[in-house]
Amino acid sequence: MEYRQLGRAGLRVSAVLLGGWNFGKVTTERESHALLDRAYEAGINVIDTANKYGRGVSETHIGNWLASDPGRRDRMVIATKVFGAMSDWPNDGRLSARHIRQAVEGSLSRLRTDRIDLYQLHHVDRCTPWEEIWQAMDVLVDQGKVLYVGTSNHAGWQLAQGQESALKHGRSVW
Asked: Which CATH class is domain 3-165?
């Protein structure tokens, strides 16, 4: 397997990763575990999922797989995403600090781990200011619940806005 550096971070990730979008939606837990086993044997060290995939079922399948052999966790890079609502309640979604902090606790529980290696903003939230998003992420990094922060489904100009906001407020540039 070929490994590459993740952006400017010191983290090395496999050139190929396994996405868990279908875990629980299309594949059973047993089938998901077989796919995870095969990826692991091939040297894939990144599993990507999101809190909303199957309303948490994808993360649960991955967490159960990790727990079945505790030595695996430290060899794997677990990437998950935040944005999607897990219920119909008005604050149970998007990128408010409240939802981010609530969502990470749910993801950690379902993934059966103490940390998320790469926590990604799944979608753009035009209602929440970047300052609030960065503050929430800084708290999670400081607590050791998240190691790296990333984004998914953002245009370049949106990332530039986020970076400008982070720098303006003296925050780390992710």
From this structure: alpha beta
Q: How far apart are CA 4 and CA 16, in angstroms?
A: 10
Q: Where are the beta strands (DSSP E) in 97-160?
A: 116-121, 146-151
Q: Name the nearest CA neighbour of 173 among 12, 10, 8.
A: 8
Could you read off the pLDDT of 103-138 as tens digits, one per residue? 999 999 999 999 999 999 999 999 999 999 999 999
The residue count of the chain comes to 174
Check: pTM over 0.85? Answer yes or no: yes
Active site residues: 53
C-alpha neighbours within 13 Å on the C-beta side of residue 129: 7
Q: In b/e form, how buried is each residue of 92-105, taking b as 16+ CB within 10 angstroms?
A: bbbbbbebbebbbe
What is the residue extent of each domain of the chain? 3-165
